[in-house]
């Protein structure tokens, strides 16, 4: 099953390091970051989960819940968490799904036979409170994820959901944003963007970032 942007994230029930998870119920009205790992006790994954734990406050500010997954069982996850906490100087504060039966992996197309026919790839999904998939990224097993980029995309998604803007290349929170081309009415533009805008081209209009 291939998951595309705008699809409803498949629901599931699965064991985890924090007990049984009913995914949609667990998400509630939050945004979600679901990310998979090839296996427990692997070096890159250990750094990723440690870094994610350190982002707890950043995720909370954005109303985001994180949840990880690998095909190893719960008892393995518990032992691995001890290693993560020790080596990364943190405390894992989110669940790790134990997908030994590959149920979630199959729902989210996390096993790519050309990469490895038994282990999950390093995929990540951002899911909004309506349970829609808003971002998908798949990394090779050898490359750790850039979680600052994940936060940047979530900031962009939340901003552009609220205002008729898009975010340009390399945008960071607080930078200028682009007024969407479909917005033509000058009265509405003045109302929405009281700080004004500059038209580089008729289709490229930049304005200070609205308040989030």
Structure description:
The structure is a single chain. With 212 residues, the protein is an alpha+beta fold. It has 7 helices and 11 strands. It has helices at residues 23-27, 43-54, 56-61, 74-88, 103-107, 147-162, 186-192, and strands at 13-14, 21-22, 31-36, 64-70, 96-98, 122-127, 133-139, 165-166, 177-179, 198-201, 204-207. The strands form 3 sheets. It has a 5-stranded mixed beta sheet. Strand 1 and strand 2 form a beta hairpin. Helix 2 (43-54) packs across helix 4 (74-88). The longest helix is centred in the C-terminal third of the chain and has 16 residues, at 147-162. The protein is elongated and about 60 Å long. The model has no long low-confidence stretch (mean pLDDT 93).
Compact summary:
The protein is α+β, with helices and mostly antiparallel strands and 212 residues long.
Classification by helices and strands? alpha+beta
Overall shape: it is elongated
What is the CA-based Rg, rounded?
19 Å
Helix content: 25-40%
**Number of H- or I-type helical stretches:** 7
The unreliable regions are none
As laid out across the biggest beta sheet, the strand order is 5-4-3-6-7
| Tally of DSSP β-strands | 11
On the 0-100 scale, what is the average pLDDT?
93
Distance between the termini: 35 Å
